[in-house]
Amino acid sequence: MANLDLRLVRIFNVIYKTRSLTGAASLLSVTQPSVSYALSQLRRQLDDPLFVRGPEGMVPTAKATELFEVFSRSVNQIDRAVEGWESFDPSTSTRTFRLCLSDLGELAFLPSVMSRLEAEAPGVALDVVPMQIDRVAEWLERGEVDAAIASVALPGQARQKVIFRERYVCLLPTRLDRGGEVLTIEEFCALRHVLIDQSSGHSQADAALAARGVERRGSLRVHHFSVLPGVLANTDLVAIVPLRVAVLFRQLWPVAIKELPVEVDGFDVSLYWQDTVTRSTAHTWFRDLLGRALSNVDMLSGANGMPQA
Fold first, then answer.
1. SS3 for 279?
2. Does residue 258 sit in the same domain as residue 276?
3. How far is it, in rounded angstroms, from Cα 79 to Cα 195?
4. Would you give the distance in Å from CA 155 to the centre of its chain?
């Protein structure tokens, strides 16, 4: 097999992601016939159909799926190597960075991050990728996201910066507040709870409670923390949330904060990135900006009178 043209590899990657020749052509700003021709070249060189038409678009073959793992990683490494040699001026750059955040991260961190971006790099765009905790490490390795902020350890990530230490508390409507700082186990178990799907990356509290024989009575399961204050303010439901977010919610909604009835270990909120991008000037700048923005978030929280963990 002859050496593959890097242009064909890039087209293959886009077809794989979009599952569409038309969609790939649009993203690449080329005509659909040129994408079809590139695919035919790849099929001939690789001796495999690579994609077959199905009800939901172009379905990759087993060989295509295997190749994508290699191709995407290789192209990203080439791009990063080139970026490392290119000069990067944030004040004039128009590139787009991709940051993986949970909905809590969007609430807590985006205002500060965007304020920094507008001040230092007004032409730079930010694409926020919704958190899927079981896929973040893979996205980082492939270069599909430039950085991620997570509250659980991500396997295989050599680069990590702890932003702050956090802990969980119980958030409840103010009308249910009977005074005191800590809920008793009896009070806690009698309450009806909103449960957050584990894909958010916040399963530590439930695991700790279960280990101590404490079971929550779930009345609602959701995928996003951001819906909680409105739900709690209009029902008699309660929820477990990180302290800093609970303080933010309390400032905007009629909710109260209580300590959990059993001790639950705190956790680190960390910034993650892939080790292979450390030589890129652009990525180094982006990580530095995130670090400064997130540090500012923590200081503002303390200044707003938030109880410290």
1. coil
2. no
3. 41
4. 15
Residue 309 maps to a domain: no
DSSP strand E in the chain: where? 51-54, 57-60, 96-101, 125-130, 147-150, 159-166, 168-173, 192-196, 217-222, 237-242, 255-258, 267-273
Asked if 242 and 104 count as a contact pair (C-beta separation under 8 A), the reply is: yes
- Tens digit of each residue's pLDDT (9 = 90 or more) over 98-150: 999 988 888 888 999 999 999 999 999 999 988 888 888 878 877 778 899 98
- Cβ 293 vs Cβ 109: under 8 Å: yes
CA–CA gap between residue 45 and residue 50 (Å, rounded): 11
> Does pLDDT of 2 surpass 70?
no
Q: Do 114 and 71 fall into the same domain?
A: no
Distance from C-alpha of 164 to C-alpha of 253, rounded to nearest angstrom: 25
Asked, for residue 56, whether it belongs to a domain, the answer is yes
Residue 91: inside a domain: no
> Phi/psi zone of residue 157: left (φ > 0), alpha (ψ -120 to 50 degrees), beta?
beta
Verify that 246 and 181 share a domain, yes or no: yes
Query: Whole-structure pTM over 0.70, yes or no?
Result: no
